[in-house]
Amino acid sequence: MTTTTNFSGKTDSRFRAVEDAFRENFDRFGEVGAALSVYIDGKPVVDIWGGHADAARTKPWEQDTIVNVWSTTKGIVAACAHRLVEEGQLDIDAPVAKYWPEFAQAGKESLPVRYLLSHQAGLAAINSEVLPMGSAFKWDVMTNALAKQKPWWEPGTATGYHALTYGWLVGEVIRRITDKSPGTYFLETIAEPLGLDFRIGTPASEDHRIAEVIPAEPDTEAYFARQMSDPESIQFKLAFNPPDLLMPGIVNTREWRAAEIPAANGHGNGRSVAAFYGALATGKILREETLARAIEEQSNSTDVVMGIQARIGLGFVLSSPKYPMGNGARNFGHSGAGGSMGFADPDAGLGFGYTMNRMLNPLKDSLEDPRWRPMMVAVYASLK
Fold first, then answer.
1. Is residue 5 very low, low, confident or very high in pLDDT (cuts 50, 70, 90)?
2. Selection from 204, 170, 159 nearest residue 73 by Cα
């Protein structure tokens, strides 16, 4: 079915091919609703949106529509941590327990902060106890459980994606230093000064403009899904402890939206994500030397949780063939489950942000969403 309705926004004439690629995704991949923005040197050259904000296709996607972006939130949290590094309040080589004393349980007394940011801490899931329903919405319950948790592997010896625990781990370090939740710290320190329409923990007053997330069809052949069939596996514990953590439809509930789950429940749009990465690319959030350290490669190996090779920095994913982020040699960012994406090209002064409500499975043996490449190719072709 061809979708041609409800496309709005502005595109500089030089970047018309980017808008064309965005529109074509609706026909090629069954896009329901989405937004795409590209910033160059702090200014938007593409800011477009289209489709519908609900599965029934009764509510148009508007200029101010926001949506849950899943793990695209992780890049936001990483920037908050590096802001504290820049201010001299956080040493990423210091033990986590320096800032969070209770974390020193189960042999973790010397585990450094950098392992939290680089997914090398061995804390990708909670196995120390079975948590009750609703625990994911209770900050202290999750952080207390992680403080007790014994690493699944020797920290620093492997990389395993901390899909959900990353947010509580890095977020608690931020909270201990600032006495503010990571969502509040981000809002006050980065979002409000830059005018970003992005929140971690979203009040009910914004519900009217939040798009409904439409889940992808289960991919039973994917490595993660196959491993999850073992109830003692990291993958099973990641998804089902607490048992309602990834329950179908939970992402569209008020409880999910209101909570701070800093690895997975940021709400924003393409404009806010692109502006954020554009600000990182142009030194408006972090100084050049701080950013350079943040995007130093920490690992380039097969992830023991996801089973896919990826290049990992300190809180950011680095561009690679199986996780493409345009053409820049130093490009970095973070995507979210089902397809949202934000990345920066510091050499081009570029920020890219794409958000959508219909989740798709990534390409086989990859982390790449099929909708990304046409838009990214068009962006870089337009820069020539």
1. low
2. 170
Q: What is the pLDDT of residue 365?
A: 85
Per-residue pLDDT at 368: 93
- The single residue listed with the structure tokens 């980065």 is 190
What is the C-alpha to C-alpha distance for residues 79 and 76, in angstroms, rounded to an integer?
Answer: 5
Q: Is 71 a catalytic residue?
A: yes
Q: What is the pLDDT of residues 253-299, one digit of tens each?
A: 999 999 999 999 999 999 999 999 999 999 999 999 999 999 999 99
Task: Please state, in angstroms and as integers, the Cα–Cα distance from residue 150 to each residue in 111, 140, 223, 242, following that order.
Answer: 11, 18, 24, 17
On whether the CB atoms of residues 207 and 119 are closer than 8 A, the answer is: no
Q: How many Å apart are CA 290 and CA 228, to the nearest integer?
A: 38
Q: Give the three-state DSSP class for 354.
A: strand
Q: Does the structure show a pLDDT above 60 at 203?
A: yes
| CA distance linking residue 237 with residue 256, whole number of Å | 19
DSSP code, position 125: S
Task: Look up residue 190 and give its amino acid.
Answer: I
Q: Which of 205, 191, 171 is nearest to 271 (CA)?
A: 191
Report the candidate in 380, 358, 379 with the shortest Cα–Cα distance to residue 369. Answer: 358
Indicate whether 57 pLDDT > 60.
yes
Determine contact, residues 169/146, Cβ cutoff 8 Å: yes
State the Rg of the chain over Cα.
19
367: confidence class by pLDDT, cuts 50, 70, 90:
confident
Q: What is the DSSP string of 33-56?
A: EEEEEEEETTEEEEEEEEEBSSTT
Assess whether the previous peptide bond of 242 is cis (omega < 30° from 0).
yes
Query: Of these residues, 37, 71, 135, 340, which one is catalytic?
Result: 71
Are 230 and 125 within 8 A, CB to CB? no
Q: pTM here? A: 0.97
Q: How many CB atoms lie within 10 A of CB 177?
A: 17
